[in-house]
Structure formats: C-alpha cells, structure tokens
Amino acid sequence: MKLTEKGDIRLYILTLMDHVDRPLKYSQINDIVLQDDFVSNFDFMDQFEELKASKLICERSDGAYEITPAGEFVANTLKSDIAGYVRERGIRHALLFLEFDKTKTKVSSRTAENDDGTFDLTLSITRKGKRAISVTVNAETEFQAERMADNFKENPEHLYKFIYSFLMGQAKY
Q: Does one domain contain both 75 and 132?
C-alpha cells in the first residue's frame, strides 16, 4: 500500500514521531518514514516541510526535530484515519530502526539462483560491523525466497532470538 494523499502522509509522519517520543535528526526521520515504502521520498520531503510550516513539528537548536503539542494532538485525534496495519507496521519498524541505529545493527538478505533452478537466500544481521548471524536457506522458487526475505526483514529479531535460544538449549517448542 502506498500513501499518496498529502494529509495521510503528514499524519503518518506525525504518528511515527509521536510514538518515537524523542527528538530525531532529519536523516533518521527520512529513513524511518521511507523504510516500508508507504511514502515516496519526494512526498516525504514535501510534506515534512508542510509540517514544519504548520508548526506541527519544530527544529530544535541542536538541529533535531520533535513533534509539537499541536502535532501530538493531530496524531492522536486522527490516528484511526491511517489503515491499522500501515500504522502498526510503521511504528514497529520505527522503534526497531532506532534500536538498530543505537546498536549499529544492520539487516540484509541476498538471493542467488542455483543451477538447478532453486534459490539460495542468505539472511544476515551485523552489529558494529561484525557478523552476529548469517543463515543460508534453499527455496524452491524465487517467489518463496522473496517471501522469506520479506518476513525476515519484517521481524529480524525473531530469527536472531530463536537461533540463539535453540543453540543455547533454551528453545521451547
């Protein structure tokens, strides 16, 4: 789903900033808003400027941005206007992005076609430049590999926690 209505885009930005509940650099807000592909980069830049002009967000003296009380009111009053799964996914990913940013954690996936027509999917998590985990699985189809990669990117911490729990003998089935 792509947000294209200007009001929806502004509300999405406000909602994410309200839930993060701390000042953010412009680049962090940009990355958080664009990471799920609900908003285009051009629309983000345009609507971010509108939010500043409307005084729903403000720039602090240190260059970080925060939501104003008026912005909080708008975000909380109109939050039901954005589809629930878009809002919830955006919030979850915003919080995960900030946690990963703090710990310098990166998530990646790579797909390679094999000679037999199957696909190897490599899923990786790195922290501070060091590999924390890397797993390669074989998928029968490219579609299956893409779905697995999407699910991994949606909740990478689940794979990480499961593998470590399993290897430490703490996994419960």
A: no
